[in-house]
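User: I've been trying to design a sequence by hand for this structure and keep getting stuck. Would you show me what you'd pick, starting by listing the structure so we're on the same page?

Assistant: Good idea, let's start from the same input. This is the structure you sent:
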């Protein structure tokens, strides 16, 4: 089985509808309306931008491994740390 996903959009409703018609004539496809979920990403479209999150996916993973009641950690690493490929700090896991 081969599945392809395509997302398209426009500020011009007429242009978006015309493109959809052309695509439907050429390919077998269905229009599902406003994008809300794509490739494990939740999509929220708001006036000030488009926001992506993986909250639903992460909750599924936590449930799968019985960790739904785990204590949340806001920032799992040191804040203000600059990461670089030229890092000269000691390795976390030293070979034995």
């Amino acid at each position: 089985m081969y599945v392809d996903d395509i997302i398209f959009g426009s500020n011009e409703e007429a242009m978006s509808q015309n493109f959809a018609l052309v695509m439907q004539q050429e390919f077998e496809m269905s229009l599902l309306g406003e994008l809300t979920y794509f490739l494990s990403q939740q999509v929220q479209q708001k006036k000030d931008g488009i926001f992506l999150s993986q909250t639903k996916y992460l909750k599924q993973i936590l449930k799968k491994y019985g960790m739904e009641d785990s204590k949340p950690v806001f920032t799992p690493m040191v804040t203000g740390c600059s990461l670089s490929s030229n890092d000269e700090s000691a390795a976390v896991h030293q070979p034995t």
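That's my pick for every position. To get oriented when you compare it with your attempt: The beta strands are 37-38, 41-46, 49-53. The chain is about 25% helix and 15% strand.
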